[in-house]
Design goal:
11 helices; alpha/beta; binds magnesium ion; about 15% strand; 6-stranded parallel β-sheet; Rossmann fold
Length: about 325
């Protein structure tokens, strides 16, 4: 048995602890009748910061250790792409933080939109480019650089500029800025998105648009301008690639805890969002638990994507109701 936790709306609200979240981790880390450690990983669509920084922050809030070896955020599986592409455009996130993330993943040559604006400001005619941004950018002659792939790591902070630059590159000849390909398909470089959520809850009363909305906008523009569909890869919950990656992380975390690398038979996904946590877990054959401390505000269960293991008041109720009590009982009977 093992658990996969969504973070926001389950264990924390932003930087604020959900008290039952701390209690659950105490229990799973050994404060239980058998004194055993029960494997668990964290699976979030969050992004924009290196894993180490995010885990340090979470450990502090939850008063429990959170290792990078049990932690998957939306762009974590994109680490594997560093093997295939040398020069990449990385889009999204605050300031130049996603460049740091990509460097940490092993990408060798990372371009961000600001590097291109610093080279040629006419690329983004409505953008006000500050001196501070210019100083931290790394301009060069992008008419001579083949960008091999576009990686959207996190939410765009400037849709107009980022969409313009992405469209320029998608329409270019093999990622050479300033060129326009004769054939929009054969010479097009690939594009990857770290997650597909349409909306994201914030302090604003109505949820704000997220990467999924940004992607749909790009797809519509691309189709209108070129007449062909944009092929793309999306990671994050509920995409299968992310759950497959989670299995690998779970298996190696089992080895860390119990010295045996295998995927646990019963995995419980605990999440607050039926459209990502629950639908993905259901499709992947996990037991899904929906909690009422976040996005879900409905009745007995979600109408479109019902949790197959049930709906719970909070994460503590989900973990203790059946699964943990069950393992304690079976262990006692041996
Ligand atoms: Mg959530």
């Amino acid at each position: 048995m093992a658990f996969a936790f969504d973070i926001d709306g389950v264990l924390v609200h932003g930087d604020r602890l959900i008290p039952e979240g701390r209690r659950v981790l105490d229990i799973l880390n050994g404060d239980n009748e058998l004194g055993i450690r029960i494997p668990h990983i964290f699976l979030t669509n969050g992004s924009g910061k290196p894993e180490v920084a995010r885990c340090e922050q979470l450990s502090k809030i939850l008063h429990n250790p959170v290792s990078t070896d049990q932690f998957i955020q939306s762009h974590t599986p994109m680490r594997a792409l560093a093997e295939y592409y040398n020069t990449v455009l990385v889009v999204g996130g605050e300031k130049y933080r996603c460049r740091d993330v990509a460097e940490e993943y092993g990408f060798k040559d990372i371009v961000v939109p600001n590097d291109i604006i610093a080279w040629d400001e006419t690329v983004a005619p409505y953008r006000v480019f500050t001196e501070e941004e210019r100083l931290e950018s790394r301009p060069r002659d992008f008419s001579k650089v083949h960008i091999e792939a576009i990686l959207v790591f996190s939410d765009s902070r400037d849709y107009a500029t980022d969409m313009q630059i992405i469209m320029d590159l998608l329409r270019s000849k093999n990622g050479l800025y300033g060129t326009v390909a004769e054939d929009p398909i054969s010479q097009r470089i690939p594009i990857y998105f770290s997650q597909g959520d349409m909306l994201c809850p914030t302090e604003h009363p109505i949820p704000r648009m997220s990467q999924g909305a940004f992607r749909i906008g790009l797809e519509a523009m691309y189709r209108a301008i070129t007449g062909v569909d944009l092929e793309r890869v999306v990671y994050g919950k509920p995409e299968m690639a992310t759950y497959k990656y989670a299995d690998e992380v779970m298996a190696s975390w089992m080895e860390t805890l119990h010295g045996e690398e295998r995927v646990p038979e019963n995995i419980y996904m605990i999440g607050d969002n039926p459209a990502s946590d629950i639908v993905g877990g259901n499709m992947y054959g996990w037991n899904t638990c929906l909690v009422r401390t976040g996005v879900f505000q409905g009745g007995d269960n979600d109408e479109h994507n019902p949790a197959n293991f049930g709906v719970f008041k909070n994460v503590l109720e989900a973990v203790t109701t059946a699964p943990v009590r069950g393992v304690v009982r079976s262990a006692e009977s041996k």
